[in-house]
Amino acid sequence: MPANRDELMGFFQDLGISVTTVDHDPVFTVAESGDLHERIPGGHTKNLFVKDKKGRLFLITTLHDAEIDLKKVHQVIGAQGRVSFGNADLLMEVLGVEPGSVTPFSLINDREAQRVTPVFDAAMMAHDVLNYHPLKNDATTAITSSDLLKFAKACGHDPQVRAVSAQAQASEVQG
């Protein structure tokens, strides 16, 4: 059975990670979450669950308005060939969440197999506070970017922080 919200919150507590959670009506897309951005401070995000030609799985997490070139992102994340979206069954099997509820917090459900490579966009990680669903899309949980890395590592993952979005790539060029 995948972890539930209470188990996730307990895991945060065990790690000494302080989070705040706001309950709200379910949101299934970034477009539906607009008013939440005004009510909840911090960077708001989106998540892409993708697989490459060899079946390797990636969870790409970026700011909600990030532009991702799906034809080229494989070069940035180290995938074999172009990536495609993983289907709902694979998402549930590996990360224990449904479409619309994809979150880096679902790495809690991939602790043993470690089938997913988390990729956090560099522009997103520049924010002090980031917001994600706590395994279901009817709430938003705020966490610091450093605690997000701590969480992912505690789940047995070594997250890649890469310039995935056009915004992060532009910052690299300017920097």
What does this structure look like?
With 175 residues, the chain is an alpha/beta fold. The protein has one domain: YbaK/aminoacyl-tRNA synthetase-associated domain (YbaK protein). The protein is built from seven helices and eight strands. Strands 1, 2, 3, 4, 5, 6, 7 and 8 form an eight-stranded mixed sheet that branches. It is globular.
Query: What would the average pLDDT be, to the nearest integer?
Result: 94
Order of helices and strands: HEHEEHEHEHEEHEH
Termini, distance in Å?
45 Å
What is the general shape? Answer: globular
By DSSP (H or I, 4+ residues per run), the number of helices equals 7
How is the quaternary structure best described? Answer: single chain
Q: Helix share of residues?
A: 25-40%
CATH class: Alpha Beta
Instruction: Please count the beta strands (DSSP E, at least 2 residues each).
Output: 8
Summarize the main sheet: 8 strands, mixed
Identify the CATH homologous superfamily.
YbaK/aminoacyl-tRNA synthetase-associated domain
> Percent of residues in beta strands?
15-25%
Gross CATH architecture: Alpha-Beta Complex
Domain YbaK/aminoacyl-tRNA synthetase-associated: 24-151
Pfam families: tRNA_edit (PF04073)
GO molecular function: aminoacyl-tRNA deacylase activity
Organism: Roseibium alexandrii
